[in-house]
Specification:
The protein has 117 residues and is mostly helical. The chain is 58% helix and 9% strand. The protein has five helices and three strands; from the N terminus they run H-E-H-H-E-E-H-H. Strand 2 (65-68) and strand 3 form a beta hairpin.
């Protein structure tokens, strides 16, 4: 389910957070879907459970997942903010790229023309 790039400079826990947020934004993971336990996820990915615990903690603080004692971990009921956040992140990346291209002397019109192809 989650693809990790072990050669990336991005920490594994951040990759897990990003992948789960991406799956939520794409609708692959839906509200109230149960997540694997920390141990199960760690075993499936071949990583330390503490790494998964850190990722789950971040996801819970962002409101993406909810942990219910003795029941498990579930995708939150309020996931629209995850989709909005991912859209905002994408727009910010696009703006940064456009800014970098403009610094090279490329106009917005030229960028749009190239992107349209």
């Amino acid at each position: 389910m989650i693809n990790l790039d072990y050669s990336s400079r991005t920490p594994i826990y951040e990759q897990i957070v990003s992948e789960i947020e991406r799956y939520v934004a794409l609708g692959i993971l839906k509200s109230k879907d149960q997540m694997p336990s920390i141990r199960e996820m760690a075993s499936n990915l071949g990583i330390n459970p503490n790494t998964v615990k850190k990722a789950y903690s971040i996801l819970e603080s962002k409101g993406v997942i909810t942990s219910l004692s003795t029941k498990g971990t579930f995708i939150s009921g309020n996931i629209d903010n995850v989709k909005d956040s991912k859209i905002e992140e994408g727009i910010k990346e696009i703006k940064n790229i456009i800014s970098s291209l403009e610094k090279l002397g490329i106009t917005k019109e030229e960028i749009l023309k190239k992107v349209g192809k």
